[in-house]
Specification:
The chain is α/β, with parallel strands linked by helices. Helices cover about 50% and strands about 15% of the residues. The chain is built from 20 helices and twelve strands. It has a six-stranded mixed sheet. It has a two-stranded antiparallel sheet with strand order 7-8. Strands 9-10 form a two-stranded antiparallel sheet. Strand 3 and strand 4 form a beta hairpin. The radius of gyration is 29 Å and the shape is globular. The relative contact order is 0.08.
């Protein structure tokens, strides 16, 4: 969980907090911590730190780049007799340097979005100062142009460090060398989840329990127990020590470990047991001596939900009017090429288990429902959901409509009526819902969607387990920006016909 994303407001200590601060440190240990672990703090030499830690090398180079940009900017301002502009350029360098002290990982340093946001705020600030204190409008224009140029160069420097050829030339690596600390079960899950993350390189694990027979976890070598962390990573060169909140390591132990890692130039990160949650939902605050992670509600509520519903209906109405000729033409084609109605009606389940009639252009033969029982053994998905890549009930025209996703256009009427949303989980059949477990029922917390995260993540290529996981992730982590991104990705998926059958 990125420290840039989680806000950590400063809380003035209350009387109770002060009492907590005055208690002896040993009394703050968790009851489960039977022994106090002393982590040796052996600082490494400057040469070793430079050689081992990609974070320090990257930060030093970025600071050198920022300093060069500032010197050039100050020189240009002085030459053009813009003393105020020169002062603003110097302030920019101070501002960027102070901001860098909060970065603890390589990904923080090369986060272009965050650096762009910082520089946009500074450009606005410097422009306002120049307008207020400047002698003329031209001086304000010079200040604006100079700060914009410096901001662009700062972004360019960070972007350049992400290029493989630049990294090779400078002997830099963006991979963050990580060790994971915790009990065997927690470490195993974390290693499995993190092994595919770009720029995460897990080089070892430390186990909280004594288990001399365990030499590796998922192929990652066991470097020792918790008490060995600070001593052994000083010989390996680690960027991040990721610690599970295990009983073996209480609050005081974590503090001592942090002190030791500070001397080694490594970042301490605490892994929470919270999963399936995006950073935007989380904020960090202090209660007494503890840090608490507050999770905001995932799905839209109140006015946000009402606004989302209004936008859904308006956009669906516009799309329905625009696509009406296409729907009519496709319906006529379906009616002419096969017997049966052009529009297929089927009962589906919406939020909280309510049912509604969903409309689609018919892509199967008229007796498709009667033939389903004969095909159940060929089901390729499971979990109450039936999918076949070569379903014999699909007509030739129906296969074409499915590839282009034209069969789903009548569902725009369901969105206008309020039965569905433009974006949401896949609408389920009542028979599927009957087979749902508690995890799968989370999909029914919001309205089903005409498209959704499931569609842009593979559609019919997904397994039932993946479908539930993806839909649950959407429900738990709804954001307007995610809806917009899904809508844009849907256009790409429709044109590439990915997973459509």
């Amino acid at each position: 969980m990125s420290s840039a994303t989680l806000a950590n407001p400063v809380v003035a200590p209350s009387g109770r907090d002060i009492d907590e601060l005055q208690r002896p440190a040993e009394s703050l240990l968790d009851d489960a911590s039977a022994t106090v672990i002393d982590f040796p703090r052996t600082p490494v030499s400057a040469d070793d730190a430079w050689r081992r830690h990609g974070f320090r090398r990257t930060r030093t180079m970025l600071r050198a780049a920022d300093g060069t940009i500032a010197v050039v900017g100050i020189s240009a301002a002085i030459v053009s007799d813009g003393r105020l502009t020169a002062i603003m350029a110097a302030l920019w360098l101070v501002f960027m340097t102070v901001r860098h002290t909060r970065d603890g990982r390589i990904s923080d340093l090369t986060d272009l979005q965050r650096v762009a946001s910082i520089n946009v705020h500074f450009v606005l600030f410097s422009t306002a100062i120049a307008l207020f204190f400047g002698n003329s409008l031209s001086s304000s224009q010079v200040a604006f142009g100079l700060t914009c140029g410096m901001a662009a160069l700062a972004l360019a420097a960070r972007w350049a460090l992400t290029l493989p050829m630049v990294r090779r030339a400078l002997s830099l690596s963006l991979d963050e060398r990580i060790v994971v600390v915790g009990d065997l079960a927690s470490v195993s899950r974390t290693v499995t989840e993190w092994e595919a993350i770009e720029h995460f390189k897990i080089v070892g694990v430390f186990l909280s329990e004594a288990n001399e027979r365990c030499h590796s976890v998922k192929g990652i070598p066991v470097l020792g127990s918790v008490k060995d962390v600070a001593d052994k990573i000083s010989r390996v060169g680690i960027d991040i020590v990721a610690v599970h909140d295990v009983d073996k390591l209480g609050g005081l132990q974590l503090t001592k470990l942090q002190w030791a890692l500070e001397e080694l130039g490594a970042q301490l990160s605490v892994i929470t047991p919270v999963t399936n949650t995006v950073e935007a939902r989380a904020t960090v605050r202090r209660a007494g001596r503890r840090l608490i992670v507050d999770l905001a509600h995932g799905r839209p509520r109140g006015m946000v939900a009402a606004l989302k519903g209004a936008v859904d209906r308006f956009v669906a109405a516009v799309l329905l009017l625009v696509s009406a000729p296409v729907i009519a033409s496709c319906a006529l084609l379906v009616r002419v090429t096969s017997s049966g109605p052009a529009v297929f009606r089927q009962v589906r389940v919406r939020e909280h288990g309510a049912t509604f009639v969903m409309y689609k252009l018919r892509t199967m033969t008229a007796d498709a429902e009667d033939r389903l029982a004969d095909l159940l053994e060929s089901n390729e998905v499971g979990g109450g959901l039936f999918k076949m890549k070569a379903d014999p009930r699909v007509t030739a025209v129906g296969a074409w409509l499915r590839r282009l996703s034209l069969d789903e256009l009548p569902q725009l009427w369901n969105v206008v009526k309020g039965d569905m949303s433009l974006i949401g989980p896949r609408p389920a059949l009542p028979s599927e819902v009957q087979a749902y477990d508690e995890h799968a029922r989370r999909r029914l917390a919001v309205k089903p969607g005409l498209t959704g995260l499931w569609q842009v993540s593979g559609r019919s290529n997904l397994s039932w387990t993946d479908t539930v996981r993806i839909d649950s992730d959407y429900v738990d982590n709804w954001r307007f920006r995610r809806d917009l991104a899904i809508a844009l990705r849907t256009v790409k998926v429709v044109f590439t016909r990915d997973g459509a059958h």
